Structure prediction request, 193 residues.
Amino acid sequence: SELQLEQEITMTPIKPDALILAKVSFGAGVNAKYKVAFNDTAPAIEVNEENFMETLVLFDANPNLDTAQALGLFLVNQGWGYVRDLLSSDEITDSMRSSLIFALERSGEREGEYLLASLIEDDSLGETDRLRAIMSIVKMGEINSQVALSTLQNMLDHSNSLLGQTAMLNIGILGKQNPRMTSDVTAFLTQRL
Prediction:
């Protein structure tokens, strides 16, 4: 039941070839004309009303970041009422609700942050979904704004102490995830603690 790795490495010098080096350009920006796949930020799939549920079910079973972003963009375009109705629906499983919240996080849109903030503050939603939204809103990176910070600050004195404590922990994470917000977060935490 114990494995042992055996490896042999052989190194041989490469002889310089003047003909190859003569063809190489070391100028600045010489490779700028080449386009690479990671420069494309659009998701590979498009989610619409016809394929939304099918895409959500497939994503829930086999999650990937491209599909999360595509689902998030669809949810952002549908708006608050649509997202809230989905999270309240009996047809959506707990795992699917988690996937929806993650998709909002991965949307890469400011509106995704607003939707997560609304979920956090909605007392009609379940505690678990609100906790997920708290943890997701701080992971939006450069998208994060004062909306995330003020939403978490508002939750600190919530009657549900678990939501309040989770908000406090995630305010610190927000400062780490978005360097632009570090000074605001530090000032708040210094005052609060």
User: Anything to note?
Assistant: The chain has a mean pLDDT of 88.
